[in-house]
Amino acid sequence: MSTSRVMVMALVAALCTACATPNVVRLPSGKVIEQRQISNFSPEQLPVPVLRVHPGDVLRIVRDAQTPAEKDEATLYRVRPDGMIAYPFIGTVQAGGRTPEDVGEEVTRRLDAIYREPAVTVNIAEAPGSRVYVGGAVRNPGVFELGAAVNVAQAITATGGVLPTADSRHVALVRQDEQGVQQVYFFDYASLLGAGTQGSRSVGLQRGDLVFVPSSRIGNAIQRVDMYVGQLLMFRGFGASANYQINEPSYKINTPDGSVP
Fold this sequence. Notes:
The chain has seven helices and twelve strands. By secondary structure, it is of the alpha/beta class.
């Protein structure tokens, strides 16, 4: 048999083998899927809202020993885009991302070398960015002003409620922590509404929170985590198209037992 004939037969055999092998992507093993399943938090396990200072806020900082004769204008400090404020005699102070009490403690400590009575009280006088975001499978997704204490049920109701296609069992609460990392917590919204009549505490919202109601049409368990979070980050405008990666996500999904999903 000639060399050319052998080569042709080998090529035909290779093509037939390739045709016989279906070009499909198989699902991962059951163990992998189980590890990536969403774990829901109960209302008691979800983080309690914390009042934090945001860039653009105006802080009122008053020394407790300040006399009434001192001008009130001098007590107002707008937080710069980098989260800092400039305070007389002590220089810049990091305010963004901290509670007013934290800021007050640092200012008091740094004024100790200047005043005999250095204690100050810090309050947020203006909060232009006092908003929460509701998106996903709700009737009217959008941005809502926080005029007072608001919980998840009130925020979703303000959108007109969830759509029939919503997956109410895996609603995501996205909250930025002190380090600026977007923490993701999943909870059962339908169960939350049912538990409300039994005295369970509601899920309160804080400034900058995002509530995302996913669609029940998204596929398997791994997509349920990765695609949901990808959608909610894009809705909020976090630049997910550039930063989101399937294997090394830039967000952090929390689980009730502290394990990594």
